[in-house]
Please model this.
Amino acid sequence: MKKFIKYTLYSLLGIVAVNPNRFKPFIVKAVYQSTGRTIALDGDISWKIYPNLGVNIKQVTLSNPSGFSESNFMTLNSADVSVGLIPLLSNHIAVKTLAIDGLNL
Model:
């Protein structure tokens, strides 16, 4: 059990050391391939580690499919999502924070 916790902590530290903004091109590509829509991630993406593991994202826009009068399906000022770390280590997801600011659908 000690090795499991040790490797989990090393993994988390490795993830946090990576700048999450590096994932923007992968997110844009995955959204387009899955939906055919364009997502713009104009703001920063940041990790949160304590007291819960999470992510904060700012200034997001998702396009509408062609044929709609509005060009954007969604705009978002910021979203903050975090999950409990201990339940995650037990293969459970416990959402601790879900805060959305400036959502326009």
Summary: The mean pLDDT is 88. The helical segments are 2-17, 24-35, 85-89. DSSP finds three helices and five strands in the chain. Residues 39 and 62 are 4 Å apart (CA to CA).
